[in-house]
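On clarity, I found the account of how folds are encoded harder to follow than it need be. What matters is that the chain and its backbone geometry are given together, residue for residue. I therefore recommend that a typical entry be quoted early in the introduction. An entry of this sort, consisting of the sequence and the corresponding backbone structure tokens, reads as follows:
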Amino acid sequence: MATGKIYQQLLSMKRKGRSGFAVLVDPDKSAPADMPYLASLCNDAEVDYVLMGGSLVLADNLDACIQRFKAESDIPVILFPGSPAQVTPYADALLYLSLISGRNPELLIGQHVVSAPAVKASGLEVISTGYMVIDGGTPTTVSYMSHAAPIPANKPDIALCTAWAGELQGKHIIYMDAGSGARNPISKEMIQKVSSHIALPLFVGGGIHTPEKVYENCKAGANIIVVGNAIERDPMLIRELSQATKVATSEVEQ
């Protein structure tokens, strides 16, 4: 079991039924010069985590984006890599993703073998992640790049069994993602089904645009809500979306 600081925070959220908010930054869509402004918004909104990474990362911005962000903020930066090349020691932790919803051996273990030396040498807190792609109503980059069919949106039992498989294999967290640009976010019924039957922290992302949906997902049992596309279009949403997780958590603690 992982014992790093960030993972212990996530476990505590799970045990207490709390929720947090993470901003997803794609270095292909953001420049290092954008980071001070983003850091200011995240600091003011008391964002819990910033995830950095993307399915492609064509631009050589990852290291510089992380360094510029961390110069302005103490919010932990967690790598959300789309390939073994997206490993850098400048972050605080790494979501070591295994696509357990697919049947592509490269994304189950192949790329991990390639990246293992760099990951071991990085000194990062490594969080083994059971990554599950859920059908969001439109083809997404992750589905195309992974050559894997997503879990049907109306099959919560399949999602639960997949999450159980990840838990039994020793994953540290489960991450359910409808994908960047998803038309439909993951249903509260699926989130509740999975969250209520696993002991692992649950990340949920894809297609989330409103504080109402953030709040609904938190109440259904998501521990970390991840939003990227909506914030790229309107960075001022960060405060509203982050506040929704805090409202949901305050109701749990009352």
